[in-house]
Specification:
415 residues, alpha+beta, 11 strands
């Protein structure tokens, strides 16, 4: 992996992978956690509006070129970042990146179609809650925190979306969509010189420089931890939802105070405790007691989120029993300091590395991961240093971390 900076501050990451496919990702430090002073949902609305037209192309031309050039392309807004990414043939990389650089650097934010796009976002919001696991997570985060941005949906609320103006979208865009606040990752079979020359041509030519010259000196403020994080409201929260024919349960434990090594310990623990059909949770809840079709624990490690979660679905009459089994499983593993012997840790690390390697085999996923980590942390240590960190993990380290994390959860029940 090679990292370079262009003269305008744009960070470029090149990764050689043999083959005829190039995947790239344009990451922008302009996610929902940057919305302080703006209506909720502004970051997501900007992502929508940049596709409505540029100084060079109208919306139809953009859509036609996306279909013509890309095998896959997408854009998404998360709390810590916005990404624009896709995969295409090596020979079409320049045309594809030229299109996407035009979209992110030269949007016109046309008034014609603005109201219709906001209506589309409201419809997206209406459909959001139809995914019951997502709905449960949304309620969980809303009840878990007082002021963290993640207590409200990335997309915003009907009220906040209705308040967003075109001028506010332009203001947010002008503040954050500058090359020094972006990273472009390229995973390709083309040479480094060829790939970086294309990025320079698309992001560093004189026309772009003219458009951004008044913004180049702006430095995006560093977000303080007191704005990003807070302790959770522990306890059980229940919300009734008609017609779901069952119940969803989710636990959340904040992990924003973990070091990179402690995060590695948590990854080892999570692989054993809540990943796969041989995990403690799966064996206890499903195999032995038949209480759920699926149950898992996951680590959300994105900047501004950082949670350890447990999720399951069950029947309404089994809620109490399920909670008791989860709680007892947590307490038992906290007290059983000898379970993670050297042999088990090595076995788990192999499994983690296999999953990481499989994920990285998808070039578009690798391009996206490299961009997101660079935006969030200023490096990709979490990918490339994690194997070394995991090799140093001990049973005592894991015990300390799980006893640090697994306390006073927020528990959400939807039934």
């Amino acid at each position: 992996m090679i990292k370079e900076f262009l003269k305008n501050g744009l960070k470029v990451i090149y990764k050689y992978v043999p083959g005829n496919i190039t995947s790239f990702c344009i990451g922008v430090d302009a996610g929902a956690i940057r919305e302080k002073g703006f209506p909720l949902g502004t970051a997501h609305a900007v992502e929508h509006m940049v596709f409505k037209g540029t100084v060079n192309k109208n919306e139809l031309e953009i859509n036609q070129l996306c279909d013509e050039l890309f095998g896959f392309q997408n854009a998404m807004t998360n709390y810590p970042y916005v990404v624009y990414y896709g995969s295409l043939l090596n020979e079409d990389f320049e045309k594809g990146l030229e299109l996407f650089s035009d979209i992110v650097l030269k949007p016109t934010f046309p008034e014609n179609g603005f109201k219709e796009e906001m209506d589309i976002i409201k419809q997206e919001l209406n459909e959001w809650s139809e995914d019951l696991y997502q709905f449960c997570e949304d309620e969980l985060l809303y009840n878990a925190f007082h002021q963290r941005r993640i207590k409200n949906l990335i997309i915003g609320t009907h009220e906040s979306i209705s308040k967003i103006t075109l001028n506010e979208l332009k203001e947010f865009y002008n503040k954050y969509y500058i090359p020094s606040n972006m990273v472009v990752t390229v995973v390709t079979g083309s040479s480094k010189d060829q790939a970086i020359n294309i990025v320079e041509k698309c992001f560093n030519n004189s026309k772009v420089q003219e458009n951004i010259s008044d913004l180049k000196s702006i430095k995006v403020d560093t977000l303080e931890d007191k704005y990003l994080y807070e302790n959770n409201n522990s306890g059980i929260f229940v919300k009734l939802k008609e017609g779901i024919g069952g119940a969803k349960i989710q636990y959340a434990y904040p992990i924003h105070n973990l070091s990179l090594k402690e995060l590695g310990c948590l990854k080892v623990f999570n692989n054993y405790f809540g990943e796969g059909t041989s995990s403690i949770l799966y064996d206890t809840i499903r195999t032995q007691n038949g209480l759920a079709y699926e149950i898992e624990s996951t680590i959300k490690e994105e900047n501004g989120i950082k949670l350890f979660k447990i999720s399951m679905g069950t029947s309404e009459e089994n809620i109490k029993k399920s909670l008791g089994l989860i709680d007892s499983s947590v307490e038992k593993i906290k007290q059983d300091t000898g379970v993670f012997n050297d042999q088990l840790i090595k076995k788990i690390i192999r499994s983690i590395e296999l999953k990481r390697a499989l994920r990285s085999e998808k070039s578009v996923q690798l391009a996206k991961d490299l961009a997101c980590n660079e935006i969030m942390y200023g490096s990709n240590d979490i990918i490339y240093k994690m194997p070394e960190i995991l090799s140093e993990v001990t049973s005592e380290d894991i015990s300390r971390v799980i006893n640090k994390v697994l306390n006073f959860p927020t528990i959400q029940i939807i039934n």
